[in-house]
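Exercise 3.2. Students should predict the tertiary structure of the chain below and write it as structure tokens, then compare their answer with the key that follows.

Predict this chain's 3D structure.
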Amino acid sequence: MVNISSHQVARSVISGLFPLAYAAVLTFLLLQAFRMMRLSSASASISPSDRTGLKTIHPELLDENGLMTNEELWAVRFSDKEGSVIPEA
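Answer key:
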């Protein structure tokens, strides 16, 4: 006759359930991650390009009165070669 204490039985039951609980939590988290990625990709294609729905202007394009500047704007692109600057209008 084998004498097994209840403490040893409880320990073996808990150690047997740990991998199952770990797998269940991992599966749940993976499913939630895929669901969130699916929702974000679907909402990105539906949403407008401007999140506010209002006409927005970069603050540097405004003058001291808050109106759009009438100055000529320049963009400068630097090439890999030293000393060459190519202005764009």
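Discussion points: The two ends are 95 Å apart (CA to CA). The chain has a mean pLDDT of 78.
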